[in-house]
């Protein structure tokens, strides 16, 4: 009996240590875009997922292009990004499992409220053509993010060939959405932003929304689990749990309930 008690006393710390290590391991690395973090969505959303699942989420917020590169290297378990053509290519190349639609919002053109370039309206191509023609200051993220990719598509639709010659006022910052907005605010420049980050942006100076409502400004977000066949160390089951939750009724309700000043920032559309 005494020997058994001694064995139990010795075994208990080891069991507790094993449980602690297991608990610490129950997390995923989520590579995501800066807009989901800088808008404040993750602070609202992820604690609800962790409470429901017991899985912690460690977010690396970079541009979508960088997030996809991280996942290609096996440095993330899942992706939550917003460049659908690039996401579909990622899955087609075998780096990711199923891509699932999660939510959407839109891009808006931000600029000085006086709008010296005359861009105001609902036609983003016409607005960018005005910026090119007038040489007005424009801040491009220039970081291969989802927003940057969307911006490049809009310039192309506007008939502006950036590869041939960038407009006089066009400047690339190689930075996230928040810093790009800060630069625009301090210099009186124009910038394409996702609406959610703009609504959460405090340093607006004399900036306002000038162009919105164009169907070309639709901004879709998707979730992808990294393929463990490419990277066996990926926490596929935990990552799949996150993917399943954000498209579930509970996750979709959590997304819809995130507001700033009574305005909804993201609109769930899982299954679309």
From TrEMBL:
<dbReference type="InterPro" id="IPR052738">
    <property type="entry name" value="ABC-Tungstate_binding"/>
</dbReference>
<keyword id="KW-0732">Signal</keyword>
<protein>
    <submittedName>
        <fullName>Tungstate transport system substrate-binding protein</fullName>
    </submittedName>
</protein>
<feature type="signal peptide">
    <location>
        <begin position="1"/>
        <end position="23"/>
    </location>
</feature>
<feature type="domain" description="PBP">
    <location>
        <begin position="24"/>
        <end position="249"/>
    </location>
</feature>
<dbReference type="InterPro" id="IPR024370">
    <property type="entry name" value="PBP_domain"/>
</dbReference>
<dbReference type="Pfam" id="PF12849">
    <property type="entry name" value="PBP_like_2"/>
</dbReference>
